[in-house]
Amino acid sequence: MEQAVFNLSQIEVFQPASLKEALKILNDNRDAEIIANATDLWPRIMNGEVKPKKLVDISGLRSELSYVKREKGVIRIGALTTISELSEHQFVSEKRYRAFNDAIKLFGSPQIRNRATVGGNICAASSSEDLIPVFLAYDAKVKLASVDGERIVSLDKFVVGKRELSKRHNEMMTEVFFEEPDDGYSSVFYKIGRRNTLIINLVNLAVVGKVQDKRVVDIRIAANRVKGKIPERARKTEEFLKGRTLDEETIADAQRVFGEELSLSDDFRASAEYRKQVLKVLLKRGLNVLGV
Amino acid sequence: MKSLLIKMNVNGVDREVLVDPDDRLLDVLRDELNLKSVKEGCGTGDCGICTVLMDGKPVLSCIIPAFQANNHKIVTLEGLNSDPTMQKIQQSFRKYQAAQCGFCTPAMEVVGWHLLNTEKKVDKNRIKEAISGVLCRCTGYYDIVDAVYEVAQQ
Ligand code: FES
Ligand code: FES
Predict the structure, then answer these.
(1) Of the ligands numbered here, which is closest to the C-alpha atom of B135?
(2) In the A/B pair of chains, how many CB contacts fall below 8 A?
C-alpha cells in the first residue's frame, strides 16, 4: 500500500482574491485542483474518490465570474453563475431557450440550485450533468483562461470523457457562450428518472431546432448517452432529419436512425434496451414540440 | 492544529473560527458553535436535513467546506426562533402535527420560512417545490404543506 491513510486535513487550500491571482496559483501548482461551489466535488473528496493535495477555491471570485450577458447575438454565462441565478435571467423564459428552463426545473433540489454552478456542472463532466447536452444543442463554446491568455474551445472538444476535460493543468474554464438562434427556433429538454427532485437521470435529451412549413430547417439533438458515458450530439439523426418534411413517416424513420446511432450500456439503474426505447419516445415528443 | 481562520456572521453575530480543510460548515455549526438544530442525515447532499441559509438562500451545510463560508452570512433555525413568521410556522406545525420524530423539522421550517419571506403569493404547489429538497420519513409531507400553507394565507 503506497498511501495507507489519506489525511484530508493536510490539503493545502488557496483562496485567491482575483482571477489573476487564481491563474497564477494554478500555473505554479501542477497538482492543484479547482474547487468552485463544490456540490459535486466535495462529496467525492469526502468519500475518497478524489484525493487532492491542493485546492484552489474560486468560490470567492463571484464578482468576476458570475454573470449572464446578452450582447451582439451572443449569450455569455460566467462559470460561477449558480443554477438559481441562471433561472432568474429573462432569456430562459423564451421559447427558443425552453430546454434551459426544463433542465433548470429538474436540476438537483432548490438547495443544490442555490450552490451548483454552470461551470461546475460542465467541468464535472459526467452523464449526470444535465446542462452539458443542453449547451451542446446550442453549439456552445467555452473560454479557458490561463496566465498565457485566453482560448476558445467548442464544448464537444472540451468534455472528452467521463470526468475528463481537454485542458492544460494551468487553465480554468471561465465562461460558456453560444450564438443566439433566431426566434423561429424551439427547444425542449427531457429527463427521465425515478423521482421528481434530486433525479439521477436514466436518460436525458435536448432538442433545439427550427421547423418551417413542416420542413426541418435546422436541428440539433444531444443526449447524455449516445455512444459513451458522456453527453454527445446525435449527428447522424440530425443529418437524416435536415431538410425533410416532418410528418409521421419521417419521425418514425428518424426514431429508427436514432436507435441505430445509439450505442448504450447497461448499468444497475437501467438496461441499455430500456434506455434506447425511452430515448426514441423522447425524440418523437421533441420533434412534435418543434413541429407545432 | 486547525489551520484555517474563517470569519462569518452566524445568526447576526460575527464569529472567527479555526477550521481544518476537511471540516464541513455542518461540523462548525454543530460542534464549534453548538447550533444543534442543524442535523446530519446523509452527509452527501441528498436529504436536505442540514439546510441553513447562506447569504439568505437555503443551502446544504454538509457539502459546503467550512472554508467556503469565509466572509458569508449564515442563519440557522436558532437565529429565526424569535421571528414572528417563524413563530407562526412553528405553531402551525404543532396544530397540523407536522412532525413525528422531528428530525426534518428544523430544515422544513427554515425552507418554509424562506419561501414565505421571499414570495408574496404562495400556493400549495410552490410549497411542495420549496420543501422538495428535504426528506421526511414520517409525515407523508401533507401535514407539512398544510402547516406552511395556513401561514401563507395569513
Ligand atoms: S445531511 Fe446534508 S443533505 Fe443530507
Ligand atoms: S418528522 Fe420524522 S423525518 Fe420528518
Answers:
(1) 2
(2) 80
Distance A45 CA to ligand 2 centre (A): 29
pLDDT at A227 over 80: no
Give the three cell numbers for residue A245.
418534411
Indicate the pLDDT class of residue A151, thresholds 50, 70 and 90.
Answer: very high
CATH topology for B81-152 is DNA polymerase; domain 1 (1.10.150)
Restricting to B residues 27-86, those with a Cβ less than 8 Å away from any Cβ of A are 43-46, 48, 51, 54, 57-60, 63-65, 67-68, 70-71
* Contact between residue A113 and residue A107 where contact means Cβ atoms under 8 Å apart: yes
B29 Cβ below 6 A of ligand 1: no
Residue-level pLDDT at A5: 47
Note the CATH architecture for domain A8-59.
2-Layer Sandwich (3.30)
Contact A38 B44 (CB under 8 A): no
Phi/psi-derived region of residue A72, left when phi > 0, alpha when psi is between -120 and 50, beta in every other case: left
Segment A65-89, tens digit of pLDDT: 999 999 999 999 999 999 999 999 9
Identify whether the C-beta of residue B100 lies closer than 8 Å to the C-beta of residue B138: yes
Classify domain A62-179 by CATH architecture.
Answer: 2-Layer Sandwich (3.30)
Does residue B104 line the site of ligand 1, with CB under 6 A? no
Q: Residue A281, Cα to own-chain centre: how many angstroms? A: 22
Nearest-atom index, ligand 2, CA of B144: 4
* Spatial separation of the C-alpha atoms in residues A229 and A133, rounded to whole Å: 12
The pLDDT score that the predictor gives to residue A135 is 97
Picking from B141, B129, B85, the residue whose alpha carbon sits closest to that of residue B110 is B85
Nearest to A38 among B43, B68, B130 (CB): B68
Please state, in angstroms and as integers, the Cα–Cα distance from residue B130 to each residue in A116, B141, B144, following that order: 17, 12, 11
Q: Which fold has domain B4-76?
A: Ubiquitin-like (UB roll) (3.10.20)
Interatomic CA distance for residues B135 and B62, integer angstroms: 15
Angle formed by the axes of helices B84-95 and B105-118, to 10°?
130
B132 touches chain A (CB under 8 A): yes
Average pLDDT over residues B50-62: 98
Please give the C-alpha separations between residue A13 and each of A41, A55, A145, in angstroms, as whole numbers.
14, 5, 21
Per-residue pLDDT at A1: 37
> CA A286, CA A205: separation in Å to the nearest integer?
9
Prediction ipTM score: 0.94
**Prediction pTM value:** 0.94
- Is residue B141 a contact partner of residue B131, using CB atoms and an 8 Å limit? yes
Give the whole-angstrom CA distance, residue A209 versus residue A254: 14
